[in-house]
# Entry
Amino acid sequence: MNEMTLVILAAGMGSRYGGLKQMDPIDGEGHKIIDFSIYDAMKAGFTRVVFIIKREMENDFRELVGDPISKHMKVEYVFQDLNNVPEDFTIPEGRVKPWGTTHALCCCKDVIDGPFMVINADDYYGRDAYNVMYSFLNETADEATAYSMVAYELGKTLTEKGSVTRGVCNKNEDNYLTHIVEQKNLVRTADGAAYTDEETGETVSIDIMTPVSMNMWGFKPSVISSFEEALSLFFREKVAPNPMKAECLIPTEMDTLIHSGQATVKVLNSHDRWFGVTYQEDKPFVMAGIKALKDEGLYPKYLWK
# Structure
């Protein structure tokens, strides 16, 4: 049995949400979404958690999130630093946005030495997702480039409050990912879902049953060296055309690895509900969903006591 690590992407700025949603309570006991994610991971068998945060968040994050959890799991912190770039790269003046989720994972290279799972700090994935991911990682621990992701139906991940970005997936009959594209501007419509093509301005319909990634990935340490190569190219060629907003993202780089034959990605499915707080207006819906799960007995009143 391998020790499994949960890596949480928590350095995002939450610009659309209007604050640090990673620390925003969603029940009367003061729990954050991240608490329920870690609790579910612990129940599935994960024994260690690595938080990727911004350095200026550290004191508050330790007090509000890390310290209570440290009594139950091993806890480590990694900082995603805007200045962590190649020596010959000049950061564009005025840039404050992090370099993306691929960059975040590369910041973890010194603390990752075995199978690990990656999630967003502000998404509730459901316990079944952690169970299926734990099983996959344990069964494939010796397969260096056998990766995985948990897919959700697009229609179950849309908010009524605005547009979202999702990793839209294609898979083969054996449930292996064949293509993934980071699609922006996805919205719910009267008869399903659609997005606006950024180049043409055209509105394109999309099936609400389409599988999408919510950034729940299962990786081995080998992925970090692949991501470092992708980052090198990103800083050389991709920042200049969009210096304020360019990001190196996990779905985009995984698509490249799949098409180059450097990795396989098994698409896992979860039957649980997904909740997320892209916008402040999403919070009441998430709170109601969590309350229902607590009322059903899935969670105790206090997770860490």
User: Anything to note?
Assistant: Residues 13-19 have pLDDT under 50 and may be disordered. Residues 172 and 178 are 7 Å apart (CA to CA). The chain has one domain: 5-151+213-295.
